[in-house]
Design goal:
single chain; alpha+beta
């Protein structure tokens, strides 16, 4: 155990921040931490858009499902897949890389690069006493988000991250049991998984019952199955392809 591990294990999503901005020095440090993340084949496919304009933050909050903490925080980042930069580089050498950019592999590489960069930012921010919450809700209305942030073709916003000084102390949600997510030498049989999920359903039901004073009593199995009973953001496939990504 050390401070880095303690910071990681203490993670909680923060959805209420103090009315206090983050310094430019701190913002630069967080971006440097993002850039220090691993990147596939040195491609560096992630771009981060820092949203400082309060009107734009307010609009993003509305587009993300009226989440107030998108606007009310110390700073807001949007993490994007970005192959526009690679297009510019190719044009400098009079090369065509369209087939590569449009591949499913490239889409996966970009998604992984952005996710690794973002998690570096999250850990770095929390190590500095800040709190963070990921905002996947920006994918509710990606066309409007892309236009708001002036994203060209081959640049796709994936998720946001609100960062700031915490003004709340939420409880830490119990995670799945380690044997449910860590399989040695091959995938476990479903019978074992089912037994682990029964245990986890009971644990999380008790957590929510206590946290909400009995207003919520469902466990993780019930919550997630209900949530996934119908697909979300079904427009995504068509929109991503219109951005010139994930076509082949």
């Amino acid at each position: 155990m050390n401070e880095v591990i303690e910071t990681i294990l203490a993670h909680k999503s923060i959805r209420k921040f103090k009315d206090k901005s983050i310094s430019e020095e701190m913002i630069t440090t967080l971006v440097e931490c993002a850039q220090a993340a691993s990147t596939s084949s040195y491609q560096q496919v992630c771009t981060i858009i820092g949203v400082e304009d309060q009107e734009k933050k307010q609009k993003l909050g509305e587009l993300a499902g009226n989440q107030s903490y998108v606007a009310d925080n110390g700073y807001f980042f949007v993490f994007c897949i970005d192959y526009n930069r690679h297009k510019v580089a190719a044009e400098m050498l009079d090369k065509n890389i369209n087939d590569t950019i449009q591949s499913t592999e490239a889409f996966i590489v970009g998604t992984v690069d952005a996710s690794l960069a973002a998690q570096n930012v999250a850990v770095a921010a929390e190590s500095l006493g800040l709190g963070i919450v990921y905002i996947g809700g920006i994918r509710n209305n990606l066309k409007e988000v892309s236009e708001l942030l002036d994203c060209p073709e081959h640049v796709l916003p994936l998720f946001g991250m609100a960062i700031g000084y915490p003004d709340a102390e939420p409880g830490k949600k119990p995670r799945l049991p380690i044997p449910a997510v860590f399989h040695k030498n091959g995938y476990k049989k479903n019978e074992e998984t089912e037994n682990l999920l029964k245990q986890y359903e009971k644990e999380t039901a008790e957590y929510y019952t206590k946290r909400t004073g009995g207003k919520r009593t469902e466990g993780w199995v019930t919550q997630i199955t209900t949530s996934m009973s119908s697909p979300k953001r079904a427009y995504m496939k068509e929109f991503v392809r219109k951005k010139g990504l994930n076509k082949t």
